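Hey team,

Filing this mostly as a record. A colleague (T.K.) asked me to run one chain through the structure pipeline before their review meeting, and I want the input and output archived in the tracker in case anyone asks later how it was produced. No errors, nothing strange. Just documentation.

Input sequence:
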Amino acid sequence: MNEIFNANPTIYTKSKRSLRKSPFETGQSLWVDDIEQQDWSDASNVEPIDQDEVFDLIRSIADPEHPNSLEELRVVSAEQIDIGNNLITVEFTPTVPHCGMSTLIGLSIRVRLMRCLPPRFKVDIRVKPGSHQSELAVNKQLNDKERVAAALENPALLETLEKCLATAGSQE
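Output structure:
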């Protein structure tokens, strides 16, 4: 992990959107079908969630190569988040088409959301179409339950992931 894929990234200013705290508490599983499903058919039990709230959860994740957030590098934005029928799709844009950190960035987004959102949500993480030379392979890795579980069992990868997530939720 010593190779830098984008030595001189463009840094953008943070948006004026607020960094509010999510009312959702963490579930321990990364996957919806691993948790006994509650009856979500009663709409009065369901907390609504919007694009801005999901963005607030992921915007301050640290980039694995640079001392900047995913928001500052424009890797994520609220406009790249789609929510519907308990499915949250997050599209992210690597800073360069050959970024070797894309899988780690996507994994960071997945883990952050699965730790913060109720288990009723299914999360789909995707690279923005046309933004990465290995787009299909990265998308397959990020949305394959067994591959994600195997990645999270790797101590070195997990340590790097936790460093990326250490700044998640910060308002600086």
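Quick notes for T.K.: The beta strands are 81-84, 87-92, 122-127. Residues 16 and 135 are 30 Å apart (CA to CA).
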